[in-house]
Structures are given as structure tokens and as C-alpha cells.
Amino acid sequence: MKKTCFFSLAMLSAIMFTSCEQEYSTQEETTVNLKTTTGDFDRLFVTPKEVGMRLFSEALVTSMNQSVQLRQIIKQKALEEFNNDNDVLFVMIKDLPTEYGKVQNLIASNLPGGMSKLNEIISGNPTLTILVPTLPEKSFSPSTWDVNGEVPSVGIRLTRTNNIPFIWNSGDEQVIPGNYTPDFPALVVKENERLITDNDPLYQKLSTRVVYSDGLVGIKFLDDLFDAQRSPQSYLYMRTRHVDEKISDAYSLYQEIDGWHRDYLYYNITSGTPNGPMSNDFKEFLGKFKMVGDGYAAYDLIADQTDDPSVNPKPEGGNWAHWTEGQFEFQVSFLINSTGGSGEETNRYFPVRPDDLFQLTYSKHEKGKWFWKKTWYTLDDIDNKTLLLNIPVVVWDLEDKSIEVEVTFYEVDIPSTTTYTTSHVSEFATNFELNTSLGETQKVGMKFGASAKETNTRTISRVMTQGNDPLGSDIVEFGDDVIVGRRNAPFFGSYWKIRSYSTGSVEFTFEPKRVQ
Question: Starting from the edge strand earliest in sequence, which strands make up the sheet with 344-352, in order?
Fold first, then answer.
């Protein structure tokens, strides 16, 4: 009886879609028609990996119609947020039991080619993931999913198009424009942007935790900030109007004289005490993060799945398959040269929920009648919001590091990396001497002291993540003021204003904070 009930619900969905597919070309979406042919759907899958995702998704839909326990497993694992998102890595659930045997046996039973084909799909796409998204206005989420009564449809996230191959819970297949978001139960099959496999050269260089290893493939986190066990969203913090007393003292000390705030923070140097040893009390952090400019343009820059506009020209109302991504992932590259030879690139990654970065306003579009009515959302208005981060980067010791850091931002799609070398010209401070009586090296003099600064070219090994959306760079100099003023805000009183930087796409702060 259960199978019959779920099949009937699926058929109702199919009937509903047939009855309303002509109506999507009305109102704002005058150029959009959801009626697609089998050929339209088939043409979206080109590579073996994409074809494998389609076959897996079709089998997943059939299997979810059969198994309540499979739906319960997916929901429970999504709520665990192992990578700080509602992702379910398939290889982590494949051996769990359902009423039809192991998960992988159930999926394979609905897959042409059976277990052999499933193994082939997983071998070609080890990070194959099922996302349980949170949809607008609390219409569907992992926590609200009624696994006993709701069989989700499945969208497939591809990187060459913004359109969504969509498999209804009836098994029918459609192509959904990227600017449409469902308000009914729907899952997403995708690659995982927060994990990296051992066939990537970056894998061995990472000290992050191994998520999965079976002798055939190893999978680990791209960054600890994606690991819920090591960083349970702790990179987010609320800024107060107060700063560390030593930072505000540095502002006061150098208001009337020419000097560097960080000289005081790292070396305790003032006009009256011009020499000092390095102190590890402070470290540089990535603080404020905000997309700049028009909200629509900013959102389109990072939500667009493909950087090839010829693949899917942007329609009116946006070209964003944002609901299929879950959270955004960002990469920040900090490039700093070393006095001792080759330079150093530090890469950090962090996730952001769309509604933490943007104020999103949706329009509803209800189609169909009575039991066959379904609602879709399109984005109506987008405003940028400020995100407050707390990501440690580097202790800035000028004895072995250059006086500037190049900060580059990317929005991450699929983390397939390539390592290459490049030359980078940097300036270095040379005013360091060994104080034999104290047995320590000291920075001698404010700023560059009496010594001339050096300019050197260093060869740096850099990591490029293919398919990322570049968001620009800016240079942070050791001599930049940390605090640039004090402001008054209604109801909150006065607060310190931290210097901010801009890449043209991103506004951010790079600020020292006390760590001990």
C-alpha cells in the first residue's frame, strides 16, 4: 500500500506539471517557457561525469519513492552538517541499511547496469553529494521535511549551465530556468565544493581531516573551516564598538607623528622607544567581508554557475541557480614574500549562507489549480549585507616577511587545483639587528629606520582552483593605519572605524587581533 500511495502522489505532481507548464511564460518571465523536450534535457549532459550524475539522480528518485528509510537517512545526515552545510556525501551513507538492503544496493537496483554502473559513477565522481536545501520562506528544509509523506523531486547542479535538469518525483524530466526556485520538496545532486580527493596534487599538502578512505580513494576537507568537528561555524563573530586597548593606543600614539600602528603592536616601538623585539601577542585576521556595488550584479557574479555567457545567456530576472548550491564557498589567497627565498601563499576557505551575505526578496508565481497548484520563486530584490569574520591568517614579522600582503578573493565552484609558479616583486624592511646584551633580534627604528628598504623578486608557488569566479585583489601594507577614525552611531554611541580595503568586487578588513 505504501508504494501505491507514493506512486499516486508522484503522479499528481506529474499531472500538475502537465496542466500548468504553458502558464510559466506570463508576467515578468515573458521570455521563459518551462515546456521542454527530451532533447533539451539530454543535451545538458555531455561528459561521462554529467551522464553519471543524471543516471544516479534518476535512480535516487525511484529509490526515494520506494524507501522511507532512505529518505530518513538523507534527512538525518543533512541535519548533521558534517561540512557546515546540509550536504550528504554518498560514499558516507552507501553502506547504511534500508528496508531494501544497503543504500547502495537500493540505488543500484534502480540503475541500468546495476552495482557495476554505480561503482563506475562513484569512481568518476567520488564527492557525489545530495544537498537538502533550505528554500525561501521556510517552504522546505532538512528540519521541516516530512519523510513519511513527502518524496522530493531532484535537481542536478551542472557547472556548464545555469539551467537546472529537474527530475520530478514522478520520474518526468524537465529543464528549469536558473532563476526559478521551488517552494516544494526538492533535493540537489552535485559535486562537493568543500572536499578534495587524493588525485588532486593539493591533497597531500593539506593537514585537514580525512573524511573518507576505502583504499581506492581518499577524501578530505579543503579547509578546516568546512569541518564541523574542527570549526563549527566559529569563524563568525559579532563586532563590538570596542577594540583591544593596545590597538586604540597605537592610534593615539601616531595621530600627531608619522609612524606605523603595527610597529607598536608587534615590536612595542614608539617615538620614545624606537627599538624592540618581535612580540607574538598579535596576529592578522580577515575581518569584515562584503560584496560591493549593485546587489544584482554582485549576486550574479558569484551565483552564476558558468563563466561562459554563450552557454546560457542571462534572462530577465537573473541567471542564478542559487538554490542548488546551498551555501557559497569563498577562497582567499594571501600572498606574502619571504626574505629567506621563495615566497609564501596562504589559502583559506570559508562558507557563507546566501541570506548572511544578501538581503533577498522573492516574488511568488503560483501555477495550476486546486491540488495541482505549485509555487515557484524568483528573486525580486537583492541588497548587500556585511559579514563579520574571524579568520586567522599570519603573524606579521618584518624580519622574514615583506611589508605588503596581496589579498585575492574567489568564489569556489569545484575545487580542482593546479599548482604553478610566478614571480612577485616585494619590498622588505632591513632595520633588524641582534642586541647581544639582550640576546635577541630587535627592529631598530620606526618604520624603515635609518636603513634603506630592499626591493626583491621572489618566485612563489601558487595554487589555482579551476572554474573559480575571480573577485579581484588588493594590497595591504604593514604601514597602513589599523584604525582610521572614530564615529558616532545613533543608539550605539561612538565606535572605532577599522581601515577597509576593496578589490572592486569585495570590501574587507585585514586587521591585527590579540591572540595571547
Answer: 344-352, 328-336, 404-411, 469-477
